[in-house]
Amino acid sequence: MNFFNLDYFRQIIEEPYLVRRCASKIKRTECANNAVLVVAPCLVGEFVAMLPALFDFSERTDKTIDLMVTSPLKSLAERIVCVRNVFVAKSVAGRANESTSGAVSGTYEEVFLIRASRDVLQNVAPFISASKVTTALQRMTRYALCDLLKNTVLRRRPTQWRDFVFSLFDGRPKDIFFKDIFNFTKEEYETIISRLRIGAKNKKILIHTGASWPMMRWDKEKWALLLKDIHALGELDFIFIGQEKEREDYAYIASRLDFPVFSLIGQIDTAELLLLMNAADYFIGIDSGPANMAHLAGLRSIVLYGPGPHIYMSQDPNDIMLDKSGGRGLYQRFFLKKHGFIERITVEEVYGAFCKIWNNPKKNK
What residue ranges define each of the domains in the chain, with the CATH number in brackets? Predict the structure, then answer.
């Protein structure tokens, strides 16, 4: 097991350097084709949280938008109504499930470098040109020092990434719903609904246990105890979601239960997962990409948080966020530590939170 969070380190330290290098490699040329390239090879949660701002930018400016994302997000990005073309590149973390499409070329009126990676530096930046290149470096530096750091010390909720991205596109934060952002077909909806007909009348709870960093994970035995308690409330189906690495969690938790639970782990892509969330009833999971997707899909949610700062929290006051860190714990973001903040969250607290949302209708979708 790694005792240092290299992915987080790369995002904080290495990526600003790569953004600068990429900006310098893009050729400047006069262009008025109304086309914009948004380079955002983010991890899932970060990407999903920026979509309302991207949609708002498109509505306000009527620009033609091309989008660069990581390969796991391609299927979802292709459903965004305001996006013309989708390209893929690896993130700065370079995770095993990411691939690259090779060199990308084109001429744009403006390029927004939200995120960057060595893949973007080698296969994208040298082959595109633009009249203007906009990076988030100065604003993100102010955001990190004057907002995140300050509010972490004061134990206050920082400005959320969703709202910060609105400012990057010169917009004002506002609610934009799932149905406005995405263009799914009737057949895609019907396919997902068919996957949920496990117990036709049962309410569906999506469960996500996984995180790439151990300090963000909740104990598997606690998950088993929680599902036993919730199962006693009524007719419910528990559906586990996530990537291949979550299979071990599912197998252990399922073995501890005397009723069936179900798994779609590794069986659906991000577009199908978002549709699944739009059709399900509840989400319980740790602070992760799927949690952000649940917020966007209008799925009533309970999210368990590890160390701060927390910048991907739900905007809906009816969702429940369980946090024992007080927004602090930056050390635990980088280094393993016994008895992390998330371990302080009890089964009783999560069960009590679920009882509060049990009869609470879904959000506006």
Answer: 6-181 (3.40.50), 188-357 (3.40.50.2000)
